[in-house]
Design goal:
Blueprint (H helix, E strand, L loop, with lengths): L23 H4 L36 H5 L7 H7 L4 H14 L1 H15 L8 H6 L2 H10 L15 H20 L10 H13 L4 H40 L8 H36 L5 H17 L1 H4 L2 H10 L5 H15 L9 H13 L6 H17 L6 H8 L7 H15 L5 H4 L9 H15 L6 H16 L2 H9 L11 H20 L15 H28 L4 H7 L9 H5 L3 H17 L3 H14 L7 H28 L6 H18 L9 H15 L4 H23 L5 H21 L5 H17 L21 H14 L13 H27 L9 H4 L6 H18 L1 H23 L8 H15 L9 H15 L17 H5 L8 H13 L3 H5 L6 H11 L5 H19 L11 H12 L19 H12 L7 H4 L20 H43 L15 E2 L6 E2 L12 H5 L14 H4 L5
Antiparallel strand pairs: 1-2
Length: 1256
């Protein structure tokens, strides 16, 4: 509870030299005191619980409007919340009530603000008249709902959003309706301002938030009133001057006196309004603009922006602008965003630019830096603000300032890129001189042509030439007309330059063609490039029409110009590649409707010439895709294009077969020219075979001969082999497509099966090639073929394809795995490097990307069960060593394999650890040190593997048990190299296996322990040398918590209960903690840990007497003297998950010694367990005591503490009485008192940079 002496009893308005308001006690009626605000805890508003002290409306208060809606007995809060009545009618009703009895009406308004804060209580008329401010505040705090931290302005949902709007509208309309008389009665406004000022200084967040919003909206309404008064005073003064300047005969003295009297009244009213505004500004704003709550700070900044824009003569000066400038350093993006939007409203009006010069010079650097803000919304608004600053004056922003915004056009966040694109357009393209207006509208000398050149220059200077699509997308919204001027772009490329005009360089022409292609793609696809969009959105009808119009225009323009462009740049591979992508966006119907067939013929001739001239893969694939786009059977041009394609391919295939015969006849010493001719022709055929069906030319036979000859001779050029492998792969895929359609004959299925198996064997043989590129190609094609022709091929009802299923044999699996180990898991330096540091880095990144693709292709075979899962052991063991390069791929592979088969995945993981252990033994010998980095690395890998099993031990129970079984068998598999009596060779592996012991269920630990004892001898159990430590540590890891399952449940419940008490928020009321239910829930959860054998009795958990329970349970589990130690290790044939039962044997001397040792170990474990139980119980008791102390007072979720220091405003002479901070909900009273005073410094709200900002 907040003490009364901590609360202010009076709220004094700050004052200046010229305007001053007396304290609230001076404004009160002699018999009636203003309602004072209080400090308390926020709570959730509950409708219908406002009965205490609820105001009963005075007779005559009810009017027809409210009566019609059944609201005659509702409070103001409920009326505004329902939102069914017009705000004007509600305000008019309140004004009528105020004229009847202003105390009753003011009480209703006070309760309106109290209830809007979510407070259950209400101020009664008796309290309003007789109680002091502090007493009212205390009363409201006591009745505040402590069960919830919500209040109306923090609640979600459309109803509460509408309520917020209605709240603000009510205040605005109230002031507007009272602006001519009531606000000047020195009672209503003084009472309201005093109330809101007090509430705004409350420690309760709900009071502070609500009153600040109300005060700021009240201030905005008063600013509007002051503005109207100023306008009326100017009009009155003008009328007075005009009347006084008349001649004596025409002058009306009565009118002059009337105007003087009116001006005097307006001046008095304006002084009164200024006093009110000063009171709100200095009593509320200067404290709350740096409040601990970001929402409150945002409200203040948003409203001061409205004041400066609405009444710039009074507020647009450095005394008010400085608050916005300082707050731009706020740590919360929400507040920074409000600062920028407030400034945008000011910079948008160019008439105000002169008043913003000092502010701009002082805070320009901060605005520029906010363009890189971590909050994307803030960055967008900062760039928009800089655009407005740029429009106001070109000299404000330096070249460095502009360059910091230019590069953002390549941002992946589209709103930032669009804002930067608009800034770029305004800076470079929006300034036109008088000489530019006289330029022609079309052609090389038009205005757009110059702007296009500027765009090209910018694109080249940015040195990000691969991202032309991002530049076009950034400028599309503001410069779409420029980017759609394809006629000017074509003119710049085809027309000769005029005398004195500088022609485009080759590099500039390449950039222009790329920008032109990106603009065409943007116009036809109507979505951002990859990496910038959030998915395809539904286009509007207008957008669809624009898209169709643009596509038609593109076809009409480029159908004519594209053949000319290809003819001019036919030898430039990069230009031709971009130009050949344009037909993909054509409306092919226009070739017929527009009678452009001759241009189509010209285009086909140019494509044919390009194919014959170039051997570059990108160019050939672009030609192939162009033919694919033009060969559409839906259009009439299909026959013409198909004939041209067939002629081209006939020539190329015939040429290839002819050259191949000559090439193969040359034997072991082929001519280089012949090899080049074969390679170039094969490249063209392969590029076209990717998108076109060439099966009728029987390319499989010729390519297979070529590949077979390369294996026999061993000197085949690697590029020929690579493209022959790719072409053969395409042949098989096209044949598979025909067979899958069901239109093929049975013989074709058999032929395809033979071809596929022969080709896979060929690729396997090429895995041993000398050339790395050939091996990579063969490996990639093999992985794809094995995936395609796996058992998955019969899915979706395609059982007829069962003969095509191909499963790799062990030899092929071994070759694939060896390729991965030899060519993927290598160091960066082993992969070769290029000259130059920058090229070297780029080459390393490209090589790593290639190796990642190879590994992913093989892991796919593991996931889809194409190769045996055990082969993944060689992959998984590389997890730690190559974590940075392939960690994500290996981890995803482990996850997928676990989903397929948990047990087999566990066996694969333990196999990988065994392989690493064997490798370590082969390197270091059997007498290695377990502290070496190699052994520690294997143990760390085991720990990482253990973490991948997650927290649900029931799901992984069988897998973990199988893992331990295989690990134990491996540890005792090899005999001791030291002879009889020495530790087994792999015994140290148990130290690695112990990393998985924590994943065993308690009952399973006993089973695993018994399985371990099958492999142990009596002498092993007595050994204590260092070489036997792995066995000792592993046994201890299994016995921890396994000796007494029931006692483990007790301990587990205690520890879990303690954890829950730390994480769960405890409510203040002790009755709400249901201890019996918690106990029962813990017991039910503990059932997971209990053994499933029916012979074990589950003892109820008695938290009140832990030591007694522990003693009883421990005694019940002690070994009897007649149970020998040897009996524990008796071999059994029972299943591994069933605990082995001890057998009775004759008691000898060794048995007695073993029993004594077992007793000693059992007693030590009992002592440790009892100590843990006592620790848990003492900790739980301390936790309970702490909760009781916290429950002695209501938990205030947001506590606002006042600093004793006063921060002085150097310019304004403002007194900062408090510095308010909300502490986290979990802080108790003791922790609050231990906080340092400097925690309440403004630096806790704003960045360090704001402290260095000097005032104006």
């Amino acid at each position: 509870m907040i003490a009364a002496q901590d609360l202010q009893t009076d709220f004094h308005y700050p004052h200046e030299a010229d305007t001053q308001l007396s304290s609230d006690t001076d404004l009160e009626d002699p018999e009636v005191r203003n309602a004072k605000s209080g400090k308390g805890k926020k709570g959730k508003k509950v409708p219908g619980e406002k009965g205490k002290g609820v105001l009963v409306r005075a007779p005559g208060r009810v009017n027809g409007h409210h009566q019609e809606n059944g609201m005659e007995n509702l409070s103001l809060f409920e009326i505004v919340k329902l939102g069914k009545s017009a705000t004007q009618s509600v305000v008019d009703d309140w004004i009528e009530s105020y004229k009847t009895d202003r105390d009753v009406a003011l009480l209703e308004l006070i309760n309106f603000f109290i209830q809007c804060s979510g407070c259950k209580g209400a101020v009664s008329l008796e309290m309003f008249r007789h109680m002091q401010n502090s007493e009212i505040i205390r009363k409201m705090t006591e009745e505040f709902d402590e069960d919830s931290g919500d209040y109306p302005f923090t609640m979600a949902g459309p109803m509460w959003k509408k309520f917020r709007w209605g709240f603000c509208e009510f205040i605005s309309v109230l002031v507007r309706q009272c602006q001519y008389s009531i606000i000047y009665d020195e009672y209503m406004m003084d009472t309201v301002i005093s109330l809101l000022t007090g509430l705004s200084d409350s420690q309760v967040r709900a009071f502070r938030h609500t009153s600040t919003l109300a005060a700021m909206k009240l201030m905005t309404a008063l600013v509007n009133v002051a503005l109207n008064l100023s306008i009326n005073m100017d009009n009155t003064q003008r009328q007075y001057e005009a009347e006084r300047n008349k001649s004596l005969g025409k002058r009306a003295n009565d009118r002059l006196e009337l105007l003087l009297q009116k001006r005097k009244e307006l001046q008095e009213n304006q002084d009164e309004i200024e006093n009110m505004m000063n009171a709100i500004f200095k009593g509320v704003f200067v404290h709350r603009y740096r409040d601990a709550i970001a929402e409150i700070r945002a409200i203040c900044i948003e409203e001061i922006g409205v004041w400066m824009k609405m009444y710039s003569d009074a507020f647009l000066n450095d005394s008010y602008l400085k608050y916005v400038g300082w707050t731009m350093h706020d740590k919360q993006g929400e507040v920074r965003l409000k600062c920028l939007t407030a400034l945008q409203g000011l910079y948008y009006n160019r008439e105000l630019n002169a008043r913003l010069e000092l502010f701009t010079s002082r805070f320009k650097d901060r605005i520029v830096s906010m363009a890189l803000d971590k909050e994307c919304d803030v960055a967008v608004q900062a760039i928009k603000l800089l655009t407005l600053v740029l429009q106001s004056s070109d000299e404000v922003l330096t070249a460095e300032d502009c360059e910091s915004v230019y590069h953002l056009v390549y941002s992946a966040h589209r709103p930032i890129a669009v804002a930067a694109g608009e800034f770029l357009y305004k800076k470079l393209f929006s300034h036109r001189g008088p000489e530019e207006d006289a330029l022609p509208r079309r052609g090389r000398q038009c205005l757009n042509a110059n702007l296009i050149k500027t765009t090209v220059f910018f694109f080249l200077e940015s040195e990000l030439h691969e991202h032309g699509a991002y530049l076009v997308d950034s400028m599309w919204d503001c410069a779409s007309d420029l980017l759609k001027d394809w006629e000017s772009m074509i003119s710049l490329l085809l027309d000769e330059p005029f005398p004195g005009e500088e022609a485009l360089t080759d590099r500039q022409e390449t950039a222009l063609i790329e920008i032109m292609l990106c603009a065409v793609r943007q116009a036809c696809e109507c979505h951002p490039p990859i990496g910038r969009g959030t998915g395809k959105r539904v286009m509007t009808a207008k957008e669809k029409k624009t898209q169709l119009d643009d596509r038609t225009k593109i076809t009409e323009i480029f159908a004519v110009a594209l053949p000319l462009l290809l003819a001019k740049y036919s030898v430039d591979a990069e230009k031709v590649t971009n130009l050949l992508q344009l037909p993909q966006y054509f409306d092919l119907e226009i070739y017929t409707t527009g009678r452009l067939e001759k241009h189509l013929e010209a285009l086909l001739r140019q494509i044919r010439e390009v194919v014959e001239k170039h051997t570059d893969t990108d160019v050939l694939e672009a030609c192939s895709m162009t033919f694919h786009a033009l060969c559409n059977e839906e259009f009439t041009i299909f026959n013409r294009v198909d004939i041209a394609r067939s002629q081209l391919l006939d020539e190329q295939v015939d040429k290839f077969n002819r050259l191949l015969e000559d090439f193969l006849q040359e034997g072991e010493d082929p001519d280089e020219d012949d090899a080049y001719q074969v390679l170039s022709t094969l490249k063209r055929i392969t590029a076209f075979h990717n998108a076109h069906d060439l099966t009728k030319w029987d390319l499989f036979t010729s390519n297979y001969r070529l590949l077979n000859t390369g294996l026999q001779n061993g000197d085949m050029p690697e590029q020929i082999v690579i493209h022959a492998l790719q072409c053969t792969h395409y042949v098989i895929l096209w044949n598979l497509a025909k067979v899958s359609e069901g239109s093929s004959q049975k013989g074709e299925l058999v032929t395809l099966r033979k071809q596929m198996r022969a080709f896979c064997l060929m690729c396997q043989r090429y895995l041993s090639s000398v050339s790395i590129a050939v091996k990579e190609q063969a490996f990639t094609i093999l992985c794809d073929a094995l995936m395609i022709f796996s058992h998955q091929i019969m899915s979706s009802g395609r059982d007829a394809l069962e003969p095509l299923v191909f499963s790799p044999d062990s030899s092929l699996q071994s070759d694939l795995l060896n390729f991965i180990l030899d060519h993927v898991f290598i160091d960066q330096d082993d992969d070769g490097s290029t000259d130059g540091q920058q090229d070297d880095e780029a080459g390393k990144i490209e090589a790593l990307h290639k190796r990642r693709n190879l590994l992913a292709a093989y892991c796919k075979l593991i996931i889809y069960n194409v190769v045996e899962m055990s082969t993944g052991a060689d992959i998984f063991k590389q997890y730690m060593r190559y974590y940075n390069d392939y960690g994500d791929i290996i981890k995803e592979t482990m996850s997928k394999t676990r989903q397929i088969d948990k047990i087999q995945c566990a066996k694969t993981l333990i196999l990988s650890l065994q392989q690493l252990f064997n490798e370590m033994l082969s390197e270091m010998g059997c007498n290695f040190d377990r502290s070496t980095s190699s052994f520690c690395g294997i143990k760390e890998l085991a720990r990482r593997f253990s973490l991948t099993f997650g927290l649900d031990q029931l799901k992984t129970r069988e897998a973990i048990a199988m893992l331990h079984k295989d690990g134990i068998e491996f540890a005792f598999k090899e005999p001791s190299p030291q002879g009889e009596g020495g530790p087994p060779l792999n015994l140290a592996f148990l130290d690695i296996l112990s990393e998985f012991s924590s994943k065993l269920l308690r009952q399973d630990r006993k089973t695993v322990h018994l399985y371990l004892e099958r492999f142990m001898t009596f002498q092993m159990s007595l050994q204590r040398e260092d070489c036997w430590l792995p066995l000792i540590s592993y046994r201890n890891s299994l016995q921890a918590g396994a000796d007494d399952d029931t006692m483990s449940v007790v301990s587990g419940v205690s520890s879990r209960g303690t954890t829950r008490s730390k994480k769960t928020k405890i409510t203040p009321a002790p009755a709400k903690r249901k201890l019996p239910e918690e106990d029962s829930s813990c017991s039910s959860d503990a059932g997971v840990w209990m053994p499933r054998e029916p012979t074990v009795q589950q003892t109820p958990v008695m938290m009140s007497s832990p030591h007694m329970a522990s003693t009883v349970l421990r005694e019940a589990k002690k070994l009897r003297p007649d149970e020998g130690y040897v009996g524990v290790y008796t071999m059994s044939n029972e299943p591994q998950h069933t605990p082995l039962q001890p057998t009775h044997q004759a008691i000898d001397y060794n048995t007695q010694v073993a029993w004594m040792l077992a007793q000693r170990q059992q007693q030590e474990r009992a002592n440790i367990q009892n100590a843990k139980i006592r620790s848990h119980m003492q900790h739980a008791i301390r936790r309970s005591t702490g909760l009781m102390e916290d429950d002695e007072e209501p938990i205030v979720e947001d506590v606002m503490m006042s600093s004793e220091q006063r921060l002085e405003d150097l310019n304004e002479g403002m007194d900062f009485d408090t510095m308010d901070i909300d502490l986290p909900p979990s802080k108790n009273r003791r922790e609050r008192s231990e906080l340092k005073p400097d925690y309440f410094d403004p630096a806790s709200i704003m960045d360090d940079s704001v402290l260095n900002v000097s005032m104006f």
